[in-house]
Prior knowledge:
The chain has helices spanning about 5-10, 15-20, 25-45, 50-60, 65-75, 80-90, 110-130, 140-155; strands spanning about 95-100, 105-110. It has 8 helices and 2 strands; from the N terminus they run ααααααββαα. By secondary structure, the chain is mainly alpha-helical.
Amino acid sequence: MEQKLPERRQRISTLGQIGLQQFAPYLMNRIMGRYNATLRDNFRKQGLTIPQVRTLAVLSVADGVTVNDLSVYTVIEQSTLSRTLDTLEGHGLVRREQGVTDSRIRHVFLTDDGRALFTRAWPAMHDAFEAMFDGIDDAEYAALIATLQKMLKNIRKHEI
């Protein structure tokens, strides 16, 4: 038996029919681009880049993750993440340790200096987050998060 597509997907066949303002991937990309641009100037004054702060942010919540998992969590390509970790480690903000059972695996940890630096970066991130959700009530926010989690589950390639 042939599965029938939901009505909204049957009637839409071109981006022109959807329109940019109704195309969720475009809107999500624009929102994150604006969020990152808002933060970029603030972080530059602290000598940080978006990938560096993203790495510190993830480690502030999930310290000790593997480099591979960190790449997934941060949404940073492995080559860029490697350079980012080299810089952060060179500044004493993170440390990498070999896995206990597999020496090929590296775990990444925040140092006290890294945690302190992220603590200084966090207010700007939180302010930009609050501004982004101005006028959005708790129920709308909860619905958005539930929808985004479903979407991520639909497309993810990793269990995290």
